Amino acid sequence: METDYTVFVVDDDNTTRLLLESMLRTKHAVEAFDSAESCLARLTHKQPNLFLLDVGLPGMDGYDLCRNIKSLPEMNIPVVFISGHDDLDAVMAGYDAGGEDYIVKPFNITALSRKIENLRRIEQDKKALLTQVKDSDELATLVLANLDEYAILIKFLRSLNECADIKEIVEAILRSLDAFHLDGAVQIRLRNFEKTFSKTGENWPLEISVINHIRTMDRIFEFRTHCALNFEHITILVTNMPVADADLCGRIRDHLAIAAETVDAKLMALQTSADNASMREDIRNLLQAIGQTVESYSRKYDDARYRGSIFTTRIHDDLLAAFAYLGLSSRSEEEILGMVKDHSNKLIDIYDIAGESQATLGELSQKLARILTATENSTTPQINVESGH
């Protein structure tokens, strides 16, 4: 029996009282009353956790008793009506009086037990909530502190979105560290770019040495008042973490982890942007080279065709001149000239690949031009990596 949970039963029917007492005593402390007046008198000495009220009581009825209970100072105790009236007016009267539930006789004992258990759990939840409310001053202070810290983080994230180069990103990080009252350094690492920054300047040997030593350690590395947050493209080193206040230290560490991870993603986008820009420049150079090659090849081919034609004509003339001394018949001369001309044309055709080569190079140029157009239309931000120098 849970003696810490008490139920007051108010019913003028002796059988109902006995039934409810018998049912409830197995789990809860129970006190039964046959009138509203006797219940109110008991309230001056004892307050229950739950009221089970009959509506049709002699003298003051259950509705009036509920109103009296609810009007008492700090008497926020649930009331369940048990009545033989099941019409809508009776139910609404119970809710208007302040009751939490309305059960019609004859009632189901299992259902009533379940309702009481639910109300008991609700009361426990309320007590837990009251315990939290008692610490509201401390909680409010903590919430305000968190709001200030979140404001710093949100301001940093907004400014990061507007940063156009490495220098602006670093300045935003150092401003945020200063807002958290922290000292430290930041190392940025991109392809062909690595630099360490702090309020005192750039690339201080001691800061570089410390960061290079710890940047391969855990994602979050802590040593005394030092804390480092390591990501692929950035390490943030803080030298004066507020370790005396564990809660504050933990919150700041979490905020810095979010900031560092966001910067790392931004830097990855910068590297991709720089790689795309380099690729576009390579494609432009290649397109220009292909165009020049096609043009040069076309000129050389036309020149070779021209010289080939002249050479073939000379062979033809030389043969005609030779025929005058050889004494060949006209038919033999024509056969020899035809054979020479035919083989000369076949020889030229073997090397005549200019049209095919130009078509192949043209297709390659078109593909490269499409790739260049696609990369130029990319939404990846163009950021000058060299601005950090």
Annotation keywords:
disordered C terminus; 389 residues; 6-stranded antiparallel β-sheet; alpha/beta; 62% helix; single chain
Q: Please, could you describe this protein's structure?
A:
By secondary structure, the chain is α/β, with parallel strands linked by helices. The protein has 11 helices and 11 strands. It has helices at 14-24, 36-42, 62-71, 88-96, 109-134, 136-162, 166-179, 205-214, 246-326, 330-351, 354-376; strands spanning 2-10, 28-33, 50-54, 79-83, 101-104, 184-190, 193-198, 201-202, 220-223, 226-230, 234-238. β4 (79-83), α4 and β5 (101-104) form a beta-alpha-beta unit. α9 (246-326) packs antiparallel against α11. The model is unreliable at 137-144 and 379-389 (pLDDT under 50).
List the helices and strands and how they pair.
Elements: E1 2-10, H1 14-24, E2 28-33, H2 36-42, E3 50-54, H3 62-71, E4 79-83, H4 88-96, E5 101-104, H5 109-134, H6 136-162, H7 166-179, E6 184-190, E7 193-198, E8 201-202, H8 205-214, E9 220-223, E10 226-230, E11 234-238, H9 246-326, H10 330-351, H11 354-376
Parallel strand pairs: 1-2, 1-3, 3-4, 4-5
Antiparallel strand pairs: 6-7, 6-11, 7-8, 9-10, 10-11
Order of helices and strands: EHEHEHEHEHHHEEEHEEEHHH
Termini gap: 77 Å
C-alpha Rg, in Å? 47 Å
Which percent range describes the beta-strand content? Answer: 5-15%
